[in-house]
TrEMBL record:
This is Uncharacterized protein. It comes from Pseudomyxococcus hansupus. It comes from the Bacteria.
Amino acid sequence: MGLAERRIVKNFETNVLPGLKQQIDEAAGFDVPIEVKWDSLTKDDAYSGSWTESWPTLYFQPVVIAFKNICIDDMGKEALVSHLKKIVIQDVKDVYGAEWVTFEDGTLTLDHRFCNVDDVDTRVQSLQTTLEKAL
């Protein structure tokens, strides 16, 4: 990752990520730790020009929507707060579709390659289904 790409990541961390984190925390009803594995998200800098616009759609919007759907009542809120310990965002396994989400030992791992950016509904469905089965 070169200087230009590091600047994009720094800008995202400073100016975009705080608002996305706030949306996730509000949807969950508590402060959810988020770990982003930037080296894995930036491994192909051919897409660096669209990272800032695509990362929210790929990773964060599905979480907000799924959390809102799960937390529609006290039962869902209590289940999420008692089981979810952190979210890890990465692109390590080079997967997409339903396989992009795992939930183990309180860690929600979102592992999606840089593709199908606009297919938010599929990601929401697989994320929500995975969580609801585990909660």
